[in-house]
Automatic annotation (TrEMBL):
Signal peptide: none annotated. Residues 401-594 form the ATP-dependent RNA helicase Ski2/MTR4 C-terminal domain. It comes from the Eukaryota. One of its GO terms (biological process) is maturation of 5.8S rRNA. One of its GO terms (molecular function) is helicase activity. This is Disease resistance protein. It holds the Pfam family DSHCT.
C-alpha cells in the first residue's frame, strides 16, 4: 500500500492500560510510510491534534530517538496490562505447532537461541557485580542492638500498614462522601520524591481547604454508566500550598508542599487516596479565589486555625462505620500503640537515625533478593513455563498427542498466523464456516481483523449477529481452557502502531476485542456494493476499512492453505470464492492514486 501522505487521526493510543501519547519510535515507524519510492521527492505527514500538547511532548514525539531493541516480556502484577513492546518475542501456538511438526525441530532449542535468552544470559555478570557491591555495603553497616531495633522497626511498619487499612475504609466513598463539604480542612499525604527521607516515623503530610469533589472516570469505566457512586473513584479540589517549577521547554510541574514552605496558593485536584484525615470544622472561604490575595488569605486563615490545636485538629468521628474489618483493625492498632510505649528501645538516644540506617539495610537486603531472583530466572530457559502451559492447551484441545505429534486440528492451526489460530480452527471443525454463505463468512471473519472501538456502532442484521454470538462462545471456550492450563492469553491487539500482545486477563476481556463493527460493511462489499456505498453504512475511516479488508484477504489465503492441508476441498473452494468477492476495485488497487 504505497502512500504519499500519512495522517495521524489521533496522537494518543490506548496501550491496554491507559491512553498515552505515541512514542517517538511509534511515530518514526508510522510516519516513515509517507512517500512512494521512485515517485515522491518527499512524503507528507499530517497530525490531527484536537487537544493541548506541551512543546516538550511534541519534541519528544517528532525528534526523539527510535526505541532501543530489547526483547522483553512484561506482565503487570494486576494482570491487566498488555505486553506492548514492539520488539518483544512472543511464543504463539502457530509457532509452537510448526516447530513440533518438523522432525528435527525442538521448541526448547529455538527458545534457547532466542534474542531474549541471549540478553538474559549476557546480563548475569553485571548482576553478579551488583549483588557483590550491595552485599559489601550492607555488611559495612554496624547497628547497636540490631535485633531489638529490628523488632521495633517491624512494629512501626505494621502500625503504618494498619493505619493505611483504616484510612482506606474511612475514606471509601461509601462513608466519606456525605462529609465532603466546602471549607473543611483536609490533611494530605505528601508524595515522596528523591529528596525525601527514605524512612520516617512521622507521616509526610500537609493541610489544605476542601473546595469541591468530583467523580473521576477511568478508561475502563467509560461505558459503565450504571456504576454505583460508592464504587466509583473520586478526586478533591483542594486549596493548598504548591511549588510550581518549569523545565527547559516551559513544561509546568506542580508539587504540593507543607504550608510553611515557600510556594503559591493553588487549587489542585487530589485523589481521594491521598487524603489522610478530614476536620470536623468548616472555614469560611470566599467563593472567588481567582485573585492571589484571596487564596493567600484563605491559607493564612487555615494556618491560624491549625495553630489553635497544637495537640491535633478536631476530626470527624467514624461512629457510622460498622465494618467488622474496620473494628478489627482499630483493635489491632490500639494493641500496637501499647507495645510501642512498653518497648525497651523506644527511648534510646538517636532512635530516628538508627531506624533510618536499619531501613537502608532492609532496602539493600530486598534489592539483593530481587537481583538474585532475576539471576535465577535468567539461568533457566526463558518461556519454559509458558511452553509447558501452551502444550497443555494444545493437548487438551486435540491439536497434539501426549507424545507431541501434531494432529489434524494442529495442521490447520499451523497455516494460520494473521488471526487467532485456535478460534479459527475451532470454527472450521465445528462446521460454522461450512454451513454459511461466502458473504456471511467474510463478514464473520472481519471480527478477527478489526479491533478499533467505535462509539454507537450499529448492530449487524440478525443472521450476522447470530454468527457473532457463535464466535464469542468459541472465544469464551478457548479463553477458559487457556486460563485453566495457566497459559498467557494470546491477543491480536491491532491498536494504531501497536503490535500483537500477550496478556493474562479474565475470560470476558479476552472475548471483548472481537467486535462486529464492520460486519455489515464487509457483507455489503462481498455482495458487490460500491466503495462509496459501504462508506455510507459505517463510521470508520476509508483507510481503516481498506486495511481491514486487505488483512481479511490475507487471513482467507491462509485458510485456503489450511483447508488444502487436510483435504477439505469444499471449504477450500468456498474460501477461494470469498477472496474473489472481496478482492476488487479501489480496495486492492496497486496505488490509491488513480
Amino acid at each position: 500500500m504505497p502512500a504519499k501522505t500519512v495522517v495521524f487521526t489521533n496522537v494518543r493510543k490506548f496501550d491496554g492500560d491507559k491512553f498515552r501519547w505515541i512514542s517517538s519510535g511509534e511515530y518514526i515507524q508510522m510516519s516513515g510510510r509517507a512517500g512512494r519510492r521512485g515517485i515522491d521527492a518527499r512524503g507528507i505527514c499530517i497530525l490531527m491534534v484536537d487537544e493541548r500538547m506541551e512543546p516538550s511532548t511534541a519534541k519528544m514525539m517528532l525528534k526523539g530517538n527510535a526505541d532501543s531493541l530489547n526483547s522483553i516480556v512484561r506482565q503487570a502484577p494486576t494482570g491487566e496490562n498488555f505486553v506492548k513492546d514492539a520488539d518483544a518475542f512472543h511464543l504463539s501456538y502457530n509457532m509452537l505447532l510448526n516447530q513440533l511438526r518438523c522432525e528435527d525441530s525442538d521448541p526448547e532449542s529455538m527458545l534457547r537461541n532466542s534474542f531474549y535468552q541471549f540478553q538474559a544470559d549476557r546480563a548475569i555478570p553485571d548482576l553478579e557485580k551488583q549483588v557483590k557491591a550491595l552485599e559489601e555495603e550492607r555488611e559495612s553497616m554496624i547497628i547497636e542492638e540490631e535485633d531489638s531495633l529490628k523488632n521495633y522497626y517491624n512494629l512501626i511498619q505494621q502500625y503504618k500498614s494498619l493505619k493505611n487499612d483504616i484510612r482506606e475504609i474511612v475514606f471509601s466513598p461509601k462513608y466519606c462522601l456525605p462529609y465532603m463539604k466546602s471549607g473543611r480542612p483536609v490533611c494530605i499525604q505528601l508524595i515522596d520524591d528523591e529528596t525525601s527521607p527514605s524512612f520516617s516515623i512521622e507521616d509526610h503530610v500537609t493541610w489544605g481547604v476542601l473546595m469541591d469533589f468530583h467523580r473521576v472516570k477511568s478508561i475502563i469505566e467509560a461505558d459503565d454508566a450504571n456504576k454505583r457512586p460508592e464504587d466509583a473513584s473520586y478526586a478533591l479540589d483542594i486549596l493548598t500550598r504548591c511549588n510550581v517549577s518549569k523545565d527547559g521547554v516551559g513544561k509546568k510541574t506542580i508539587k504540593i508542599v507543607p504550608l510553611k514552605e515557600p510556594g503559591e496558593p493553588l487549587v489542585v485536584s487530589v485523589p481521594l487516596s491521598q487524603v489522610t484525615s478530614l476536620s470536623s470544622a468548616r472555614l469560611t472561604i470566599p467563593k472567588d479565589l481567582l485573585p492571589m490575595e484571596a487564596r493567600e488569605n484563605a491559607l493564612k486563615k487555615l494556618s491560624e486555625f491549625i495553630s489553635r490545636y497544637p495537640n491535633g485538629m478536631p476530626l470527624d468521628t467514624d461512629d457510622n462505620i460498622h465494618s467488622n474489618s474496620y473494628k478489627k483493625a482499630v483493635r489491632r492498632l490500639e494493641a500496637l500503640e501499647s507495645l510501642f510505649e512498653k518497648h525497651e528501645i523506644a527511648k534510646s538516644p538517636l532512635i530516628e537515625q538508627k531506624l533510618k540506617l536499619l531501613n537502608r539495610k532492609e532496602e539493600l537486603t530486598s534489592k539483593i533478593r530481587s537481583i538474585k531472583k532475576k539471576m535465577r530466572s535468567s539461568t533457566v530457559l526463558a518461556f519454559k513455563d509458558e511452553l509447558k502451559a501452551r502444550k497443555r492447551v494444545l493437548r487438551r484441545l486435540g491439536y497434539i498427542t501426549s507424545d507431541d505429534v501434531v494432529e489434524l486440528k494442529g495442521k490447520v492451526a499451523c497455516e494460520i498466523s494473521s488471526a487467532d489460530e485456535l478460534i479459527l480452527t475451532e470454527l472450521m471443525f465445528s462446521g460454522v464456516l461450512k454451513d454459511i454463505k461466502p458473504e456471511e463468512m467474510v463478514s464473520l471473519l472481519s471480527c478477527f481483523v478489526w479491533q478499533e472501538k467505535l462509539q454507537d456502532a450499529a448492530k449487524p442484521r440478525e443472521e450476522l449477529e447470530l454468527l457473532f454470538t457463535q464466535l464469542q462462545d468459541t472465544a469464551r471456550k478457548m479463553a477458559k481452557v487457556q486460563h485453566e492450563c495457566k497459559a498467557v492469553f494470546q491477543i491480536f491487539a491491532h491498536y494504531v502502531g501497536g503490535p500483537v500482545g500477550l496478556v493474562q486477563i479474565d475470560v470476558e476481556s479476552f472475548v471483548s476485542p472481537f467486535r462486529p463493527d464492520i460486519m455489515e460493511a464487509v457483507y455489503a462489499w462481498a455482495k458487490g456494493s460500491k466503495f462509496y456505498e459501504i462508506m455510507e453504512i459505517t463510521q470508520v475511516f476509508e483507510g481503516s476499512l481498506i486495511r481491514a479488508i486487505r488483512r481479511l484477504e490475507e487471513v482467507l489465503q491462509q485458510l485456503i492453505l489450511a483447508a488444502k492441508s487436510i483435504g477439505e476441498t469444499e471449504l477450500e473452494t468456498k474460501f477461494e470464492m470469498a477472496v474473489s468477492k472481496i478482492k476488487r476495485d479501489i480496495v486492492f488497487a496497486a496505488s490509491l492514486y488513480l
